[in-house]
Amino acid sequence: MKYKSQMLACYSGFIFMIFWTIGWFLVGKFILPHDPAWSASQVASHYESYAVSIRFGLIISLWSAAFLMPFTALISAQMARIEGQFPVWSYTVLGIGAANVLTFTFPVMFWAVAAFRPERADELVMLINDLGWICFVGMTSPFLLLPVAIAIVGFMDESDEPVFPRWACFYNLGSALLLIPGGIITFFHEGHFAWNGVMGFWLPVVDFFTWFIVMFVLLRKALVRQALEDSGAKTVGMEACKR
Amino acid sequence: MNAAEKLLPIPVSSRQVPGEAGIWIFILSDMLMFSLLFILFTWDQTAGREIFRESQARLHVSMGLINTILLLTSSWFVVLSVRCAKQASWQWFSRFIVLSILCGTAFLIIKTVEYIAVIEQGYSLLSDIFFSYYFIITGIHFLHVIIGLVALTCLWRGVSRCGAIKDARLIENTASYWHMVDLLWIAIFPVIYLIR
Fold first, then answer.
1. Nearest C-alpha of chain B: how many angstroms from A161?
2. Residue B3: what pLDDT?
3. pTM for this model (two decimals)
4. A101 touches chain B (CB under 8 A)
């Protein structure tokens, strides 16, 4: 049971990733980020043209965002195993996990508001659109500490087969660093540092996706190992899963 | 040299690559970001050569040059300190680390003076595309120097408290990182200040 529930939490991260992406990128017409240099009328006409699709896509994204929480809670639980009696960094990660759900839901709600009455004055639609984008790409703060916290605890792990190997700790630190350019999007309406640019959007997005995949693989491996240790079995079969 | 010699030499790795595999993942991801910044810089420079040339002429090349020398010197001190660590000469290790910290701090001070001078000339992150790159690239590098100085200070404190650093990986990783910070500046200086 211990193993099953944790594995479920691990895969819930995938549910988040797949459905959020489908909702946002494909159905919600955000496949290429809107150009921040668009005029108010261009923004308004985009919402007007795709109002139904955007609303539908955003609902999919909204619902899937909650599934990020169990995934982060799993990271936190695995960290708590390492930290022992005073799991302060695990608590930090848990808090960040909750904040991250907001990072993925609030911008969606803002965009949904824009799509709710696209016939509103163009400037108002643009304002809400900006609010969504700047919160989404620019809200690097709660997430930034997550990889750092994992690295801090990972470095302390002295077990033979650590949950987060040392290379993964360094990788986490590097991954936090690559998110930094996302924080400066408020300065730029166009160019590579704007919210649709290489540094402002694509680098942080690719970085987050890669980080997610790496963490998923590591956590899954750790869970399988944990199940084996608990059961004393040599392979993870039905015996281990029953635990 | 002194009593510190009595300490056992730390097992500094004899492998070809210094530090552990992980630090190279970190360094490579960092290099990736800077390479991307350099590519984008060159891309935009080709498109707007005039703006770049005019704005570049406003920079203080002398300060950039002094900073290059400072970081190179700092890196050299780190090389010397690693050599001392191999010989378990911790007192000298500590001295060289302090010297490298001083060079790094001088870099930050000069860079801050340069930023103030550029801002007083009326330029900012939003003045033009060249200054956007100038502030962002050198700003991210500035942050790297601060992180490096914190790591070097941790090494220095480790020796001050315990008399030695038992884990050779800490020394090699910090040294590798500091050399990367130096290397980045060696790339930044010509790209931003010199090549027109």
1. 16
2. 44
3. 0.87
4. no
